[in-house]
Structures are given as C-alpha cells and as structure tokens.
From TrEMBL:
Protein name: VOC family protein
CDD domains from the UniProt entry: VOC_like (cd07263)
Top-level lineage group: Bacteria
Source organism of this protein record: Nocardiopsis suaedae
Residue spans crossing the bilayer: none
Residue intervals of the VOC domain: 1-127
Lineage: Bacteria, Bacillati, Actinomycetota, Actinomycetes, Streptosporangiales
Length: 127
C-alpha cells in the first residue's frame, strides 16, 4: 500500500495553486473541472510521479472550523521535507512568506512553520 494523494483545505484554489507552484516550487499534476471546485493536485518537482497534494476547497462547514482550530493552536496542516532548512527559510522569507516559527532544532530534526496564505500553517522539516 502507498499514499496516493493527501490534501490541504484551501480557501481559494487559484490562489493556492499560485502559492504552491510559484512560491513553494511544486508543479501542477491534475486540474479537472467538477462544475465549480476542481480536482486540483500538485506534486514535488523532485518527484513528479510521487504523492499528490490535493488543494481541496474548504467549503464544508467542518473544514473551516478544523482549519481555524489548527491555526489558533499553532498546529501545521501538513509537513514537507527540505534538504537545507536555513536556505529554504531564507528563500521563502525573501518571497514574502510569513513564518510563525523560525527554524528550530527539535530533537534531531529542525522545523519551521509558515502561513500558506490559504488558511493553513505548513511545517517544513530538515531531517
């Protein structure tokens, strides 16, 4: 068994696509119209056949409450691995990304957390 797709709830799919591709460097994999919201996925440019991230609309009432609760408690919606967290933090900060936690050593890993502009906190991790 493998993970095929995972998702983050976003408040605007077009804005999310721009952020996740232009800023984070992912590439669009699928963009299927569904009569309003789309089946819109991105993948790592380093692993184009890897796990897809669904940019899922947060229209369901539970999704909005879930996102707000996570952000209020400072909990990231998901986590992405990076090879050099200091370099990635610098690159993203230079692009205007707002970090809620700078790179911080945490027992063998270093993590940082940023706002994805779509209602989520996202963690990056250097193992």
């Amino acid at each position: 068994m493998r993970i095929y797709v995972t998702s983050v709830f976003v408040d605007d799919q077009e804005k999310a696509l721009d952020f996740y591709t232009r800023v984070l460097g992912f590439q669009k994999k699928h963009d299927v119209p569904l009569g309003g919201p789309r089946w819109l996925t991105v993948v790592s440019s380093e692993e184009p056949d890897g796990t897809e991230l669904l940019l899922e609309p947060d229209g369901h009432p539970a999704a909005g409450a879930y996102k707000k609760a996570l952000v209020a408690d400072g909990i990231p919606a998901t986590s992405f691995a990076v090879d050099d967290i200091a370099a990635e933090h610098g690159r993203l900060t230079g692009l205007g990304v707002r970090f809620t936690q700078p790179p911080t050593e945490m027992g063998g890993v270093t993590t940082a957390v940023f706002d994805d502009t779509c209602g989520n906190l996202i963690q990056i991790v250097q193992l």
